[in-house]
Amino acid sequence: MQIGELSRKTGCNIETIRYYERIGLLPKPARSGSYRSYAPADVQRLQFVRRARELGFTLDEIRALLALALAPTDSCEPARDLAAAHLKHVRGKIADLRRMERVLSNAVRACDSEIDGGCPIIAALSQ
Hints:
With 127 residues, this protein is mainly alpha-helical. The chain has 2 domains: 1-72, Multidrug-efflux Transporter Regulator, Chain: A, Domain 2 (Orthogonal Bundle), CATH 1.10.1660.10; 75-127. The chain is built from 6 helices and 2 strands; from the N terminus they run ααββαααα. Strands 1-2 form a two-stranded antiparallel sheet. The longest helix is centred in the C-terminal third of the chain and has 36 residues, at 77-112.
């Protein structure tokens, strides 16, 4: 299949597919004349990459997961360790977002109460 069909099958932008090829997440496809020619395995690999990106894995983490997928063993410990480290990072982001929510919520609530002395939102951003 050509790149347009791969894009439609995976929902991945054509430029993103080309980028993933340049950085090695997707192998360079065979060529049929001047056209790239993709195989069903490329669809599966690109779907793997997209799902991993949707979960917030970095490109380096995805590279590591792809390497683990290509060299399966009886143990999933390396993949578990990578996912556990990513989960810790995600939980840290969630905690940061909750702190941001509290600050913004307090600022909006203070603004709604129309307290004199300036805008609480501007004051919160100025601190």
